[in-house]
Specification:
Shape: globular
Order of helices and strands: HEHEHEHEHEEEHEEEHEHEHHHHHHH
Strand order of the largest sheet: 1-2-3-4-5-8-11-12
Strand content: 5-15%
Number of strands: 12
Bound molecules: zinc ion
Distance between the termini: 17 Å
Radius of gyration: 20 Å
Number of helices: 15
Structural class: alpha/beta
CATH architecture: Alpha-Beta Barrel
Number of domains: 1
CATH topology: TIM Barrel
CATH superfamily: Aldolase class I
Protein backbone atom coordinates (compact mmCIF):
# COMPACT_ATOMS: atom_id res chain seq x y z
CA UNK A 1 0.00 0.00 0.00
CA UNK A 2 1.14 3.50 -0.73
CA UNK A 3 2.15 5.84 2.06
CA UNK A 4 1.55 8.72 -0.38
CA UNK A 5 5.24 9.65 -0.38
CA UNK A 6 6.71 11.00 -3.63
CA UNK A 7 8.06 8.46 -6.13
CA UNK A 8 11.02 8.90 -8.51
CA UNK A 9 10.35 11.31 -11.36
CA UNK A 10 12.09 8.83 -13.66
CA UNK A 11 9.52 6.13 -12.84
CA UNK A 12 6.69 8.45 -13.83
CA UNK A 13 8.30 9.67 -17.06
CA UNK A 14 9.48 6.20 -18.13
CA UNK A 15 5.98 4.81 -17.53
CA UNK A 16 4.38 7.11 -20.10
CA UNK A 17 7.15 6.76 -22.72
CA UNK A 18 5.67 6.28 -26.17
CA UNK A 19 2.20 7.48 -25.13
CA UNK A 20 0.55 10.68 -26.27
CA UNK A 21 0.48 12.10 -22.77
CA UNK A 22 1.95 15.08 -20.94
CA UNK A 23 2.58 14.92 -17.21
CA UNK A 24 1.66 18.18 -15.52
CA UNK A 25 4.23 19.75 -13.22
CA UNK A 26 2.87 22.45 -10.94
CA UNK A 27 4.84 25.16 -9.17
CA UNK A 28 2.85 25.58 -5.98
CA UNK A 29 4.27 28.91 -4.78
CA UNK A 30 1.48 29.08 -2.23
CA UNK A 31 1.10 25.48 -1.10
CA UNK A 32 -2.58 26.02 -0.32
CA UNK A 33 -3.16 25.03 -3.96
CA UNK A 34 -1.61 21.56 -3.53
CA UNK A 35 -4.76 19.85 -2.25
CA UNK A 36 -6.88 20.92 -5.22
CA UNK A 37 -4.21 19.74 -7.65
CA UNK A 38 -3.78 16.38 -5.89
CA UNK A 39 -7.56 15.85 -5.80
CA UNK A 40 -7.84 16.50 -9.52
CA UNK A 41 -4.84 14.20 -10.16
CA UNK A 42 -6.45 11.44 -8.14
CA UNK A 43 -9.89 11.85 -9.72
CA UNK A 44 -8.45 11.76 -13.25
CA UNK A 45 -5.91 8.99 -12.57
CA UNK A 46 -3.12 11.39 -13.53
CA UNK A 47 0.49 11.40 -12.39
CA UNK A 48 1.68 14.84 -11.31
CA UNK A 49 4.89 16.65 -10.35
CA UNK A 50 5.04 19.14 -7.49
CA UNK A 51 7.92 21.52 -8.00
CA UNK A 52 9.52 24.85 -7.14
CA UNK A 53 12.50 26.48 -8.82
CA UNK A 54 15.65 27.61 -7.02
CA UNK A 55 14.47 31.24 -7.22
CA UNK A 56 11.18 30.26 -5.61
CA UNK A 57 12.54 27.95 -2.92
CA UNK A 58 16.06 27.63 -1.58
CA UNK A 59 17.79 27.11 1.76
CA UNK A 60 16.92 30.71 2.70
CA UNK A 61 13.32 30.48 1.50
CA UNK A 62 13.53 31.92 -2.03
CA UNK A 63 10.75 34.34 -2.91
CA UNK A 64 7.99 32.06 -1.66
CA UNK A 65 9.40 31.85 1.87
CA UNK A 66 9.60 28.07 1.50
CA UNK A 67 12.74 25.97 2.02
CA UNK A 68 13.06 22.52 0.45
CA UNK A 69 12.17 21.09 3.87
CA UNK A 70 9.05 23.20 4.49
CA UNK A 71 7.89 22.85 0.87
CA UNK A 72 8.30 19.08 1.06
CA UNK A 73 6.45 18.81 4.38
CA UNK A 74 3.52 20.88 3.15
CA UNK A 75 2.96 19.08 -0.15
CA UNK A 76 3.49 15.66 1.46
CA UNK A 77 0.79 16.48 3.98
CA UNK A 78 -1.53 17.54 1.17
CA UNK A 79 -0.88 14.21 -0.64
CA UNK A 80 -1.68 12.31 2.56
CA UNK A 81 -4.85 14.35 3.18
CA UNK A 82 -6.10 13.67 -0.33
CA UNK A 83 -4.60 10.15 -0.61
CA UNK A 84 -2.79 10.88 -3.86
CA UNK A 85 -0.11 8.24 -4.50
CA UNK A 86 1.47 8.91 -7.92
CA UNK A 87 3.49 12.09 -7.72
CA UNK A 88 7.10 13.28 -7.76
CA UNK A 89 8.75 16.00 -5.70
CA UNK A 90 10.83 17.92 -8.20
CA UNK A 91 13.50 20.60 -7.97
CA UNK A 92 12.64 22.87 -10.90
CA UNK A 93 15.36 25.14 -12.40
CA UNK A 94 18.40 24.45 -10.25
CA UNK A 95 19.85 27.42 -12.09
CA UNK A 96 23.59 27.99 -12.47
CA UNK A 97 24.38 31.42 -13.87
CA UNK A 98 28.19 31.70 -13.85
CA UNK A 99 29.51 28.19 -13.22
CA UNK A 100 32.12 29.58 -10.83
CA UNK A 101 33.27 27.32 -8.00
CA UNK A 102 31.46 29.26 -5.27
CA UNK A 103 28.19 28.95 -7.15
CA UNK A 104 28.74 25.22 -7.76
CA UNK A 105 29.46 24.68 -4.04
CA UNK A 106 26.31 26.58 -3.06
CA UNK A 107 24.33 24.56 -5.58
CA UNK A 108 25.58 21.32 -4.04
CA UNK A 109 24.43 22.54 -0.63
CA UNK A 110 20.99 23.26 -2.08
CA UNK A 111 20.89 19.78 -3.62
CA UNK A 112 21.87 18.27 -0.24
CA UNK A 113 18.93 20.11 1.33
CA UNK A 114 16.57 18.90 -1.39
CA UNK A 115 17.68 15.29 -1.02
CA UNK A 116 17.36 15.48 2.78
CA UNK A 117 13.84 16.83 2.26
CA UNK A 118 12.97 13.79 0.14
CA UNK A 119 13.03 15.20 -3.39
CA UNK A 120 12.70 12.51 -6.06
CA UNK A 121 13.49 14.53 -9.19
CA UNK A 122 15.83 17.34 -10.23
CA UNK A 123 16.15 19.85 -13.07
CA UNK A 124 19.66 21.14 -13.64
CA UNK A 125 19.53 24.38 -15.59
CA UNK A 126 22.95 25.47 -16.80
CA UNK A 127 21.51 26.85 -20.04
CA UNK A 128 22.82 30.33 -19.18
CA UNK A 129 26.39 29.05 -19.63
CA UNK A 130 26.21 29.39 -23.40
CA UNK A 131 29.54 30.29 -24.98
CA UNK A 132 28.78 32.81 -27.71
CA UNK A 133 32.42 32.69 -28.83
CA UNK A 134 32.36 28.92 -29.44
CA UNK A 135 33.51 27.86 -32.93
CA UNK A 136 30.99 25.03 -33.16
CA UNK A 137 27.97 23.68 -31.28
CA UNK A 138 30.05 21.46 -29.02
CA UNK A 139 32.17 24.42 -27.95
CA UNK A 140 29.13 26.66 -27.46
CA UNK A 141 27.57 24.06 -25.17
CA UNK A 142 30.77 22.89 -23.46
CA UNK A 143 30.28 24.68 -20.16
CA UNK A 144 26.62 23.65 -19.90
CA UNK A 145 27.65 20.03 -20.57
CA UNK A 146 30.43 20.10 -17.98
CA UNK A 147 28.38 21.72 -15.21
CA UNK A 148 25.30 19.58 -15.91
CA UNK A 149 27.46 16.45 -15.79
CA UNK A 150 29.14 17.44 -12.55
CA UNK A 151 25.86 18.19 -10.80
CA UNK A 152 24.06 15.11 -12.17
CA UNK A 153 26.90 12.91 -10.88
CA UNK A 154 26.70 14.69 -7.54
CA UNK A 155 22.96 14.00 -7.27
CA UNK A 156 23.56 10.36 -8.21
CA UNK A 157 26.18 9.98 -5.50
CA UNK A 158 24.05 11.64 -2.84
CA UNK A 159 20.94 9.62 -3.75
CA UNK A 160 23.00 6.50 -2.88
CA UNK A 161 21.52 4.17 -5.48
CA UNK A 162 17.95 5.47 -5.17
CA UNK A 163 16.27 6.20 -8.49
CA UNK A 164 15.50 9.81 -9.35
CA UNK A 165 14.17 11.92 -12.19
CA UNK A 166 16.54 14.13 -14.16
CA UNK A 167 15.71 17.11 -16.36
CA UNK A 168 18.36 19.19 -18.14
CA UNK A 169 18.13 22.36 -20.18
CA UNK A 170 19.58 23.63 -23.43
CA UNK A 171 18.62 27.07 -24.69
CA UNK A 172 17.62 29.62 -22.12
CA UNK A 173 13.83 29.91 -21.97
CA UNK A 174 12.57 33.35 -22.89
CA UNK A 175 15.98 34.70 -24.03
CA UNK A 176 15.68 37.31 -26.76
CA UNK A 177 18.14 38.76 -29.25
CA UNK A 178 17.60 41.47 -31.88
CA UNK A 179 15.43 39.05 -33.91
CA UNK A 180 13.14 38.07 -31.01
CA UNK A 181 12.99 34.88 -28.93
CA UNK A 182 15.98 32.58 -29.47
CA UNK A 183 14.85 28.99 -30.09
CA UNK A 184 16.73 25.76 -29.45
CA UNK A 185 17.79 24.12 -32.73
CA UNK A 186 17.38 20.35 -33.25
CA UNK A 187 21.13 19.80 -33.69
CA UNK A 188 21.77 21.74 -30.50
CA UNK A 189 19.51 19.41 -28.50
CA UNK A 190 21.11 16.34 -30.11
CA UNK A 191 24.68 17.53 -29.45
CA UNK A 192 23.82 18.30 -25.84
CA UNK A 193 22.10 15.00 -25.01
CA UNK A 194 24.71 12.93 -26.89
CA UNK A 195 27.49 14.55 -24.89
CA UNK A 196 25.67 13.99 -21.60
CA UNK A 197 24.98 10.35 -22.47
CA UNK A 198 28.69 9.88 -23.32
CA UNK A 199 29.44 11.23 -19.85
CA UNK A 200 27.08 8.64 -18.33
CA UNK A 201 24.29 11.11 -17.67
CA UNK A 202 20.86 10.00 -18.92
CA UNK A 203 18.09 12.54 -18.36
CA UNK A 204 14.49 11.54 -19.12
CA UNK A 205 13.49 15.04 -20.11
CA UNK A 206 15.00 18.07 -21.79
CA UNK A 207 13.82 21.66 -21.41
CA UNK A 208 14.27 23.71 -24.57
CA UNK A 209 13.64 27.29 -25.60
CA UNK A 210 10.71 26.98 -28.01
CA UNK A 211 9.04 30.35 -27.86
CA UNK A 212 7.40 30.35 -24.44
CA UNK A 213 8.18 32.80 -21.68
CA UNK A 214 7.79 32.31 -17.95
CA UNK A 215 4.80 34.00 -16.35
CA UNK A 216 2.07 36.05 -17.97
CA UNK A 217 2.32 37.96 -21.24
CA UNK A 218 1.13 41.60 -21.35
CA UNK A 219 -0.04 43.99 -24.04
CA UNK A 220 1.03 47.66 -24.24
CA UNK A 221 -1.74 48.63 -21.79
CA UNK A 222 -0.38 46.27 -19.16
CA UNK A 223 -3.23 43.77 -19.63
CA UNK A 224 -2.64 40.02 -19.62
CA UNK A 225 -3.04 38.43 -23.05
CA UNK A 226 -2.98 34.84 -24.27
CA UNK A 227 0.36 33.23 -25.02
CA UNK A 228 0.35 31.71 -28.48
CA UNK A 229 4.09 32.01 -29.17
CA UNK A 230 5.13 28.41 -28.53
CA UNK A 231 6.66 27.20 -31.79
CA UNK A 232 5.10 23.79 -32.35
CA UNK A 233 6.90 22.83 -35.62
CA UNK A 234 10.27 23.62 -34.00
CA UNK A 235 9.33 21.54 -30.95
CA UNK A 236 8.38 18.60 -33.16
CA UNK A 237 11.63 18.98 -35.12
CA UNK A 238 13.69 18.85 -31.92
CA UNK A 239 11.82 15.75 -30.72
CA UNK A 240 12.24 14.06 -34.10
CA UNK A 241 15.97 14.79 -34.21
CA UNK A 242 16.37 13.27 -30.74
CA UNK A 243 14.41 10.16 -31.77
CA UNK A 244 16.29 9.84 -35.06
CA UNK A 245 19.51 9.77 -33.08
CA UNK A 246 18.08 7.12 -30.77
CA UNK A 247 18.30 9.45 -27.77
CA UNK A 248 15.70 8.50 -25.19
CA UNK A 249 14.62 11.85 -23.88
CA UNK A 250 11.34 13.75 -24.06
CA UNK A 251 10.73 17.48 -23.99
CA UNK A 252 9.72 19.57 -20.98
CA UNK A 253 7.49 22.47 -21.93
CA UNK A 254 8.13 25.40 -19.63
CA UNK A 255 6.07 28.57 -19.30
CA UNK A 256 2.60 27.24 -20.10
CA UNK A 257 0.66 29.89 -18.13
CA UNK A 258 -1.44 31.91 -20.55
CA UNK A 259 -1.47 29.27 -23.30
CA UNK A 260 -5.09 28.48 -24.22
CA UNK A 261 -6.02 24.99 -23.08
CA UNK A 262 -7.78 24.21 -26.36
CA UNK A 263 -4.48 24.89 -28.13
CA UNK A 264 -2.64 22.57 -25.73
CA UNK A 265 -5.36 19.96 -26.20
CA UNK A 266 -5.45 20.00 -29.98
CA UNK A 267 -2.04 21.27 -31.12
CA UNK A 268 0.62 20.29 -28.58
CA UNK A 269 2.69 17.29 -29.71
CA UNK A 270 1.88 15.04 -26.77
CA UNK A 271 4.49 12.32 -26.41
CA UNK A 272 7.12 14.65 -27.90
CA UNK A 273 6.38 16.96 -24.96
CA UNK A 274 6.15 14.65 -21.93
CA UNK A 275 6.26 17.15 -19.06
CA UNK A 276 4.39 20.47 -18.93
CA UNK A 277 5.15 23.10 -16.30
CA UNK A 278 2.37 25.33 -15.03
CA UNK A 279 3.49 27.85 -12.44
CA UNK A 280 2.16 31.42 -12.38
CA UNK A 281 -1.36 30.22 -13.20
CA UNK A 282 -1.84 28.77 -9.67
CA UNK A 283 -0.54 31.89 -8.01
CA UNK A 284 -3.02 33.95 -10.05
CA UNK A 285 -5.89 31.83 -8.70
CA UNK A 286 -4.75 32.46 -5.12
CA UNK A 287 -4.51 36.20 -5.69
CA UNK A 288 -7.90 36.38 -7.44
CA UNK A 289 -9.55 34.63 -4.50
CA UNK A 290 -7.78 36.85 -1.96
CA UNK A 291 -9.03 39.90 -3.87
CA UNK A 292 -12.60 39.04 -2.79
CA UNK A 293 -12.17 37.00 0.37
CA UNK A 294 -9.32 38.97 1.97
CA UNK A 295 -9.58 42.51 0.53
CA UNK A 296 -7.35 44.08 3.19
CA UNK A 297 -4.59 41.56 2.67
CA UNK A 298 -4.91 41.97 -1.10
CA UNK A 299 -4.77 45.77 -0.83
CA UNK A 300 -1.67 45.60 1.39
CA UNK A 301 0.04 43.24 -1.06
CA UNK A 302 -0.90 45.45 -3.99
CA UNK A 303 0.45 48.59 -2.33
CA UNK A 304 3.67 46.93 -1.19
CA UNK A 305 4.34 45.42 -4.62
CA UNK A 306 3.60 48.53 -6.64
CA UNK A 307 5.52 50.82 -4.29
CA UNK A 308 8.52 48.49 -4.16
CA UNK A 309 8.74 47.77 -7.89
CA UNK A 310 7.50 50.98 -9.53
CA UNK A 311 10.95 52.64 -9.43
CA UNK A 312 12.45 49.64 -11.24
CA UNK A 313 9.75 49.66 -13.95
CA UNK A 314 9.48 53.17 -15.35
CA UNK A 315 6.73 53.60 -17.92
CA UNK A 316 4.93 50.38 -16.99
CA UNK A 317 1.27 50.36 -15.91
CA UNK A 318 0.50 49.51 -12.28
CA UNK A 319 -1.43 46.35 -13.17
CA UNK A 320 1.58 44.96 -15.03
CA UNK A 321 3.98 46.00 -12.26
CA UNK A 322 1.75 44.16 -9.80
CA UNK A 323 1.22 41.15 -12.07
CA UNK A 324 4.91 40.65 -12.77
CA UNK A 325 6.12 41.24 -9.22
CA UNK A 326 3.34 40.06 -6.89
CA UNK A 327 5.23 36.78 -6.56
CA UNK A 328 7.66 38.65 -4.31
CA UNK A 329 4.77 39.57 -1.99
CA UNK A 330 4.31 35.89 -1.11
CA UNK A 331 7.28 35.87 1.25
CA UNK A 332 6.56 39.39 2.49
CA UNK A 333 2.98 38.45 3.51
CA UNK A 334 3.71 34.78 4.23
CA UNK A 335 2.06 34.59 7.66
CA UNK A 336 -1.10 36.34 6.55
CA UNK A 337 -1.44 34.27 3.35
CA UNK A 338 -1.13 31.07 5.37
CA UNK A 339 -3.55 32.16 8.11
CA UNK A 340 -6.58 32.98 5.97
CA UNK A 341 -9.84 31.40 7.11
CA UNK A 342 -11.45 28.16 5.99
CA UNK A 343 -13.81 29.83 3.52
CA UNK A 344 -10.89 31.37 1.66
CA UNK A 345 -8.99 28.08 1.55
CA UNK A 346 -12.09 26.24 0.37
CA UNK A 347 -12.54 28.69 -2.51
CA UNK A 348 -8.87 28.36 -3.51
CA UNK A 349 -9.07 24.58 -3.40
CA UNK A 350 -12.28 24.45 -5.44
CA UNK A 351 -11.01 26.78 -8.15
CA UNK A 352 -7.65 25.03 -8.33
CA UNK A 353 -9.39 21.65 -8.53
CA UNK A 354 -11.57 22.71 -11.47
CA UNK A 355 -8.71 24.33 -13.39
CA UNK A 356 -6.43 21.34 -12.75
CA UNK A 357 -9.12 19.04 -14.20
CA UNK A 358 -9.08 21.11 -17.39
CA UNK A 359 -5.26 20.99 -17.58
CA UNK A 360 -5.14 17.23 -17.03
CA UNK A 361 -7.72 16.87 -19.80
CA UNK A 362 -5.76 19.13 -22.17
CA UNK A 363 -2.59 17.14 -21.37
CA UNK A 364 -4.35 13.78 -21.98
CA UNK A 365 -2.85 12.52 -18.75
CA UNK A 366 -5.83 10.41 -17.66
CA UNK A 367 -4.61 6.89 -16.96
CA UNK A 368 -0.98 7.89 -16.50
CA UNK A 369 -1.10 7.14 -12.75
CA UNK A 370 -2.26 3.58 -13.47
CA UNK A 371 0.60 3.12 -15.94
CA UNK A 372 3.01 4.15 -13.18
CA UNK A 373 1.35 1.81 -10.67
CA UNK A 374 1.73 -1.09 -13.12
CA UNK A 375 5.40 -0.30 -13.57
CA UNK A 376 5.93 -0.01 -9.81
CA UNK A 377 4.22 -3.40 -9.39
CA UNK A 378 6.52 -4.98 -11.96
CA UNK A 379 9.59 -3.54 -10.29
CA UNK A 380 8.43 -4.87 -6.92
CA UNK A 381 7.81 -8.37 -8.31
CA UNK A 382 11.25 -8.60 -9.90
ZN1 LIG B 1 10.76 27.00 -16.34
Amino acid sequence: MSNFAPIPGSTILNSIAGRKMIVMATNTRVTTVARGIFRAAKDTDSAVFMELARSECDLKGGYTGLTPKSFSERVKQAAIDVECDIWALHADHITIKTGESQEIDDTKKLIDGQIEAGYTSFAIDASHLFNFEGKNLREELDKNIRVTTELAKYIEKRMKGKEFGLEVEVGEIGRKDEHGLVLTRPEEAVTFIKALNENGVHPQVLAIANGSVHGNVYDEHGNVIEQVSINIPQTKAVAKALRDNNLKVGIAQHGITGTPRELINLEFPKGDIIKGNVATFWQDIVFNVLKVYEPELYRDMWNWTVETYRPKNPGKKDNQIFGSNCKFAIKQFFDRIYSVDEDTERAIEAMVYAEALVFFRAFSSKGSASLVRERLGETNRR
